[in-house]
Amino acid sequence: MSLLRRTERRLSNNPEQVTIYNREINKLEKEGYAVKITSEDVNRTTGSWYIPHYMVFHNGKARVVFNCSFTYQEHNLNNNLLPGPTLGPPLLGVLLRFREHAVTISGDIRAMFHKVRLFSSDQPFLRFLWRDMEQDRQPDVYEWRVLPFGTTCSPCCATYAVRRHFKDHMNGNEDVMESVLTAFYVDNYLQSLPCPKQAASLIDKLRAILAKGGFDIRQWACNVPDVVAHLPSDARSEACELWLSADRTEPQESTLGLRWNCLSDVLGYKKRSVFATEVTMRTVYRILASQYDPLGFIIPYTTRAKVIVQALWRTERQWDDPIQDDLLPLWEAWESELTDLQNVTFPRRYTPFNITTEDVELHVFCDASEKAYGAVAYIRVVDSTGQTHVSFVLARSRVAPKCQLSIPRLELCAALTLEVPAFFCLPRRPT
């Protein structure tokens, strides 16, 4: 109750947020994701758990978040749940395969977690309180009927449900099952295929099979507009819809944190601004951590910042102490270049469109200095005309450890930075 009152106090001075909050709770009830239970149902169970909730703002949108990691009397819901194995493919593998072929498609399953029902015996442990800001009465008790966001087991359970559904309904569509196993990263779907006809067929099969289980895959986008032109408008992404209606010349999609320009078929970086009134170690780490770079294309830039951070720790300082030494100009110079990241792009596909591949080689280079070491992988393709095409694949770097190592030893460390990631590049190849 105390946490509910705290949330109500925060909302009481903002009628707009109250409206959003009530709308979100009512939406959960209307969709059947959560139900209001009677006092008899509340008292019928011997064990239960109540999840606190509050409002957060992310990407300009207000969301109600359920804190399943809240600790009460040394008990924590998530600590008592098994996260389960990681069933989906690694993020890196999905992104590397996304760059293989000429035609690429993306989509996501709407409210994927909320499409998986809970056992009735588990529902009492996923309760929450709300009373529509009517603080003069006792709150209503709600129970989740589906997997909520925030529980540590939800990703594993939802992924298993989707995979099991496909296994039970694939009816000989082995290509679809293979795509499900390798192209889904939780609810996000990224796939590349050799031709538009194959891509359109795969989309239709995925939509039909998922619909049988109550899953709605939508937000479809493609670098070839004809592939998604036959879909209903509500099944296509907003950017793709504008592209098809000629209202936008350069549609952009978000693909697992990267920016994908469908028309030019290039990948780029989202602008991630972090506002801070003064430079402290806390803000430095926050800014550096916000630069999402799963493929390592901006490694030369972020490595500079990591070297500065390592140097900052040579002076004893607290997390919130203002940085005022000689390293401050170096950091400010680095930070001033952040806005230029949105101009950095690289081809989505490893090879140009409409070429016949004759030979493929993976080349990995590594090097080290006294300050840092790293490695980069390129793919070299020779086409049927004898022309050579080289494309960036992956890069990783580390700052040199504080204890001084010889350059040869650091070079050995550099060789190991791509040892595991390189395996994602080996089994499949672009065609």
Automatic annotation (TrEMBL):
Organism domain of life: Eukaryota
E.C. code: 3.1.26.4
Record-linked InterPro entries: DNA/RNA_pol_sf, Retrotrans_Pao, Rev_trsase/Diguanyl_cyclase, RT_dom
Domain Reverse transcriptase: 97-218
A Pfam family recorded for this sequence: RVT_1
UniProt-recorded Gene Ontology molecular function terms: RNA-DNA hybrid ribonuclease activity
Family: Belongs to the beta type-B retroviral polymerase family. HERV class-II K(HML-2) pol subfamily.
Name of this chain's protein: ribonuclease H
Lineage, highest ranks first: Eukaryota, Metazoa, Chordata, Craniata, Vertebrata
